Amino acid sequence: MNFTLSEEHGLIRDTVRRFVDAELIPLEGKATTDGKLDPAIEARLMARCKELGLWQVDVPAEFGGQGLGLTERCIIWSELGRSVALPTRGITILGPDVRPILYALEGEMREKYLFPSMRGERVSCFAQSEPEAGSDPGSMRTTAVREGDEYVINGTKLWITGADSADFMLLMAATDRAKGSRGGISAFVVDMDMPGVELVTAYRTFTDEYPWQIQLDNVRIPASHRIGGEGEGFKLGQAWLGGGRIKQGARALGVMQRMIEMSARHANQRVTFGKPLAERQAIQWMLADAWVSLEAARLLVFQTAAKFDAGEAIRHDAPVVKLFCTEAAYKATEMAMQIHGGMGLTREMPIERFWRDQRSHLITEGTPEMMRMAIARHVLREMG
Questions:
Q1: In terms of C-beta density within 10 A (0-12 exposed, 13-18 middle, 19 or more buried), how is residue 271 classed?
Q2: Cβ–Cβ contacts within 10 Å for residue 247, how many?
Q3: What values do phi and psi take at 184, rounded to 5?
Q4: Which of 303, 197, 268, 242 is nearest to 100 (CA)?
């Protein structure tokens, strides 16, 4: 398998890299407030992305997007990962955030929810986690009971990012609790202004996110608002999460690259006890280990992307990418903070923001423990 970038891939990388260096890095610490991108800055960056051909790169061609392969998207995500100028979740400057599960909608539902989302006219949030069902969706207690042409939904959702700004939620609910995640969970579209939907509490995290608790009391929705068949929700959600894990791995490459660049530059400039830090073996070994991890992570990401673009399944690759890349990137942020000393802790530099974001990425879309469990199951089944 050849991992050398083609000329076209190199052009994409260079275009995004120049954009990040010129447009995003200078904005770090200035463009967001409480997790929101300044509207004037967002409009300028979106216009620039359209000029550069970076608009709606995640959207399939059949729905009017660019339909880029996973390799090209990983190149873009990795370069964007070199900056923390944007909010922690979502890269709105590349186009409205359209969750892939929406592509499973059909007919009038596409007209009502998918296409307005693609135009930025409607915003969604994803509601799966619950107080007692985070990594274990099979324990989900939110229920959707069929009554004629309607479903009646009751339950509590927790850690729902963007709920306060969403027009509708993509909700996972148990339609057969006895089956759990093996055919017992269904996906629904639920408008946020439906009677019985209540935003209860926002939790402030150490990133720029405010995840919400949502209460659903006897919420009645048309049966047509179910996405896919009954019991297919977990499968649809997993397909989306798999893509999210690859995206996290790709963005981690940019984080590692930036941390190594900043640390190497500082080590060459900073003099202690008459010598640059760069001459200290402890510093050299930190940088060497980080570089080895970056090279390994890069191979993992682009090997997986190449498999996907060749039509191969990557179900068992996604946990490997997510686990290794996010852990390696987090270690790289800790290295950069250590090498920079006290300055690395300040908000005068972007390192602490990289550290906070990357620490959250260890948990979201699959904890390291869950990724190891998934990998181990595969190893034991295939090789035991």
A1: exposed
A2: 23
A3: -105, 0
A4: 242
Rounded-to-integer distance, Cα 348 and Cα 201, Å: 31
Say if residues 134 and 182 touch (Cβ distance below 8 Å).
Answer: no
Report the alpha-carbon distance of residue 127 to residue 202 in Å, rounded.
Answer: 14
Q: Which CATH number fits domain 124-231: 3.60.150.10, 3.40.50.1110, 3.50.50.60, 2.40.110.10?
A: 2.40.110.10
d(CA 117, CA 97): 7
Q: Cα(261)–Cα(17) distance, rounded to whole angstroms?
A: 14
Burial of 269 from C-beta contacts in 10 A (0-12 / 13-18 / 19+): exposed
Residues comprising the chain, all counted: 384
365 is a catalytic site residue: yes
Name the token pair of 343: 């300055």
Strands of the chain, DSSP E: 32-33, 36-37, 124-127, 143-147, 150-160, 168-174, 185-191, 197-202, 212-222, 226-227, 271-272, 275-276
Q: Confirm if 93 and 46 have CB atoms less than 8 A apart.
A: yes
Which of 340, 325, 212 minimizes the C-alpha distance to 265?
A: 340
What architecture is the 7-98 domain classified under in CATH?
Orthogonal Bundle (1.10)
Burial class (CB within 10 angstroms; exposed 0-12, middle 13-18, buried 19+) of 204: exposed
- Say whether domain 235-383 belongs to CATH 3.40.50.720: no
Write the pLDDT tens digit of every residue in 241-287: 678 899 999 999 999 999 999 999 999 999 999 999 999 999 999 99
Distance CA 276, CA 268 (A): 6
State how far the Cα of 82 lies from the Cα of 262, in Å rounded to an integer: 11
Active-site residue, from 312, 365, 369, 382: 365
Q: Measuring CA to CA, which residue among 105, 147, 139, 141 is closest to residue 122?
A: 105
Per-residue pLDDT tens over the stretch 81-119: 999 988 766 567 888 888 889 999 999 999 999 999 988
Distance CA 79, CA 158 (A): 32
Query: 353 pairs with which residues across the strands?
Result: none
Q: Give pTM, 2 decimals.
A: 0.91
